[in-house]
Amino acid sequence: MNETMKGYVYRLKPTTKQIDLINQTFGCVRKMWNILLLERKSIYELYGKYPELLNGHQYVNPKYIKEQFPYMYDVDSQSLTTAWLHLKQAYSNFFNKSHDEPKYKSRHASIQSYTTHTISGNIRIEDTHIKLLKLGMVKMKLHRPLPKGSIIKAATIKKDGKHYYVSLRVEYSHLTQPEKALEKAIGLDYTLQGLYMDSEGHKADYPNYYKESLEKLKKEQRILSKRVKGSSNYLKQKEKLSTLHLHIKNQRKDFLHKASRYLVNTYDLISIETLDLTEMAKTKHFRKSIYDTSFGIFTRYLEYKTKDEGKTLIKIDQYYPSTKTCSVCGRENDIKLIERTYKCQCGHVMDRDLNAAINIGVQGLIKYATKAYGIDA
């Protein structure tokens, strides 16, 4: 039994009055962030060359800013304090060179959000509603329940396109699943067409939602380019375009969730290749397909689902030549990207993706046996 932290996302269905207050909170959080960021930038420009003065400066806090802008008292105070804490952390990350310098937030960004924390049970789910500070009871689409005995630690309210969501950070006692006995194993080879080919010869047949919607996206983008920037028609068209992008994203996530769930429920050991997708995306002809299939997101889904179910996910070394290696004799043969059939000197002929998937599956079994039974590969 151990404490687990996990996120749950639900669609909100707020009333008109609640929408107005949510949007007001977005604005106050954005103003808090931008004022604090402006102060930090200004002080650094003044005292950057004088470390003692820079370190001795006392930055303003949310209370001082709320006194200057009394309307901020109308929104959730936790959201304003969280924005202040996030900016401090963002600057620490920037000075540690792990992140870029924080930027100002725009009211025209397609995604707006704020985060609030639970104090004395002020955030809780009751039937099909969620209690949020200042907003009261907000209707939600509770498509799956929270774990029994879970505690909501924080909530992030987000507007993506024209829809509102709440992301709950939940802590609960999780009974660690014992590792399942190995009965069924499979290897997956990444393909630009279809997401993956498995070692049993089946393709995921991913529908390429982004490519299918390219004409619609181009049409809406052309309309947006003819609008006067900043006008009401421009903002309406921008929201329409954002909604279309959101629809594509939701289609993709739905497919990846279902595909990963099927694999985790069916197999005890899943082996996949390790890919540098960022480097691969630099190739002009691959960029859209890599973005569309989102193999990195698919991998993350497999990781947490296998862990929850006591199954095993093994990532094969990035430099293992799964495509070049013959799955029958083990000989390596050069094969061009345009060639879709693998041919070996031993007479073995097979689809190149299937051959690679079999090799990945075998390597996964070897790594599993080495770790579980101490068998020397």
Describe the structure.
α7 (232-266) packs across α10. This protein starts with a strand and ends with a helix. It is an alpha+beta fold and 377 residues long. It is globular, with a radius of gyration of 25 Å. It has a seven-stranded antiparallel β-sheet. It has a four-stranded mixed β-sheet with strand order 9-8-10-11. It has a two-stranded antiparallel ribbon with strand order 12-13. Helix content is 43%, strand content 21%. The protein has two domains: 2-174, no CATH class; 185-206 and 264-373, no CATH class.
What separation lies between the terminal Cα atoms?
34 Å
Strand fraction equals: 15-25%
Order of helices and strands: EHHHHEEEEEEEEHHHEHHHEEEH
Indicate the radius of gyration in whole angstroms: 25 Å
Largest sheet: 7 strands, antiparallel
Instruction: Write down the domain tally.
Output: 2
Query: How much is the average pLDDT?
Result: 88
Side by side, the strands of the main sheet go: 2-6-7-1-5-4-3
The total strand number stands at 13
Number of alpha- plus pi-helical segments: 11
Query: Which outline best applies?
Result: globular
Query: What oligomerization state is this entry in?
Result: single chain
Low-confidence stretches: none
Percent helix: 40-55%
